[in-house]
Structure formats: C-alpha cells, structure tokens
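Everyone, study these two lines:
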Amino acid sequence: MRRFVRARRLAMAVGASLLLTVSLPTSAQAANGTFGYRSLDGNYYIGQNLHSGECMPLVDGATRIDNDTDEPAFLFHNGDFYCSAQFADVPPHSSKIFGPGPDAYPYWVEFI
C-alpha cells in the first residue's frame, strides 16, 4: 500500500513538473538592434529591438531603410496588411533606397 502511495505521488510530481515546463511562456524573439526609415514625407522613424514575426506598418511608406539589426527586414507593398507578398528585403546591418515609381515604396516590414 505504501509503495502504491509513493508511486502515485511520484507520478503526480513528474506530471506537474512536466505541465509547468510545457506551459511556461517563452521569451519573445526580437530583431536585436536599431531599425530606421525615412518616410515619403521626409520624417525619420526609429525602432529598437522590434518583435520578430509581426507585420508592422511603415508610416507613410519608406524611401530609405536602415536595418542595423541582426535579422533581415522583409518589405511589402501598401495594402499587403498580412505581409504575404514580399517585394524586397534589407539584409542585417545594411541600408537600401527605394523609389520613384508606382509600387516602388515599402509600407510594411516583418522580421522573421
């Protein structure tokens, strides 16, 4: 009987620790570094340690992207709210200039 109680307690402890391990939230991934861009109206915007896997708008579009992060920046056209049709990318620690022309400017960015 005593053996059964110990075995049951041990099984419950193992099960509880496994449940805690599986259910603990993991830390969010980020593009470590600075991401900046010059908008079509001439303003310059800067972000630090941006979340990976999140489709983020570039206010007023971008004529220049400065990606000083450790991840590539994937860029998307206006109207692509789900970041599904990539048209350009900017590698880590590099810059790129866009325009002029129709559909020449990125309006969304995502780090993966």
User: Anything to note?
Assistant: The radius of gyration is 23 Å.
